[in-house]
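This section describes the prediction task in plain terms. A model, or a person checking by hand, is given the sequence of a single protein chain and must write out its three-dimensional structure as a string of tokens. No templates, partner chains or ligands are provided. The sample shown here is typical of the held-out split.
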Amino acid sequence: MNPETAPLPTILLVVPTGPLIYAKFVAHLWSLSENQGQRALPIIRAMPIGALVAMNMREVAAATLEPTIPHWDRMVVIETDMLPPHDALVKHALHTQPIVGSVYYLHEAPHHLVAMRDHGNGPQWMSKAEQNEIEDNPGLHAVDMVGLGCTSISRAVFEEWPKEVPIFRNSIMPDALQTPGTRGEVSHDYWFCLKAREFQVPIFIDSTIVCDQLTLVPIGRRQHEQHQGFVPALADAPDVDLAIDDLAFVRT
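The expected answer:
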């Protein structure tokens, strides 16, 4: 679909805050949403305030289909340590697949591409050949898990999701106990993708949307290449409820 001529849907831009917000991210986000070329992309902004990203995403998921919220077509989640390219919002807005992630890399060495595939033993980090295929061939690629750092989700996913199943949460899952570097914990994006797969929802990654992930320095493919052979240590992610101070939806 040509971004220059296709009709632009309304996106719900969700920025779930965490304990650390980079000034560089704030400036980048402003530039990202204000510089979309000749046509303005219809954006509804939501920035839940709280210390845990997963809890903020759960709050957003509970509110997005309320009749008081202006109608939106596609949610775009950008976490506060991401630097997406300037065409990321338009590209994600024009996607029609249920879930589409972007290319970015883990903070920890060996800086894996944050996407997984399941070859029969649960989602696992991809082989170097699989990762090269995605990185070197711009376009959409089917995967089984993406990070939510810069990801778009169609409205239909929320409308059709079973109400008794949380959409986003951190958890401890028995199947994850055998995963090297973990104690059985799964993050909110891993949970979301596991459940989406259970409900037969396809997941893709768009390798034309390449983001940096902020630490003290941007992390990209170069860092991954430099650290082949290391095993990343994943942080603990307890399922802790935390009150949300504010959740604002603003039509702009």
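For orientation: The helical segments are 23-34, 53-63, 88-94, 128-136, 155-160, 188-198, 221-226.
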